[in-house]
Amino acid sequence: MSQRCLLHKNKLEKFKQWLINNGWEIKDTKGFYEVLRATKEGRKTPLIVYTKANAKEYYSVMDKDYVVVKQFIRKG
Questions:
Q1: Which has the closest alpha carbon to 69: 56, 41, 50?
Q2: What is the pLDDT of residues 6-50, one digit of tens each?
Q3: Number of domains in the chain
Q4: Which of 13, 53, 65, 73 gets the highest tally of CB atoms within 10 A of its CB?
């Protein structure tokens, strides 16, 4: 499943910078719907942020990445 209405579109650049500051490496996206892909040492899968064709304000993230985005929202 994915979490919607969590990461506002105007926060994407701040989220990228927050990830970099916390040891993540930004990677090239794959496919049309990916807007951000990041990896971190010790983590098996990348963090991926998606957009949907009809999404106006928010991006989607997979449930496994929910905790990371919530940390950014609390601290960001």
A1: 50
A2: 899 999 999 999 999 999 999 999 999 999 999 999 999 999 999
A3: 1
A4: 65
